[in-house]
Amino acid sequence: MWDALRTQYDKVKDRRFETLFGSQRAEEFRATLSTGDGDLLLDYSKTNIDFEGRALLVRLMEDAGVAARRDAMLSGETINETEGRAVLHTALRNLDGGPVEVGGTDVMPGVLETLGRMEGFAEAVRDGTFAGAGGAITDVINIGIGGSDLGPAMAVRALAPYHDGPRCHFVSNVDGADIAGVLRQCDAGTTLVIVASKTFTTIETMTNARTARAWMSDAVDDPAAQFAALSSSEEKTSDFGIPAERVFGFEDWVGGRYSIWGPIGLSLMIAIGPAAFRAFLRGGQAMDRHFATADWFENLPALMAMVGLWHNQVCGYPTRAVLPYDDRLARLPAYLQQLEMESNGKRVAMDGGALDVPSGPVVWGEPGTNGQHAFYQLIHQGTQVVPCEFLIAAEGHEPELRHQHELLIANCLAQSEALMKGRDLDEAREKIAGKFEGDELERQAAHRVFPGNRPSVTIAYPKLTPFMLGMIIALYEHRVFVEGAVLGINSYDQWGVELGKELATALGPIVSGEEAPDGKDGSTAGLVRFLQERATS
Ligand code: F6P
Question: Which residues are catalytic?
Answer without folding.
Answer: 342, 373, 501
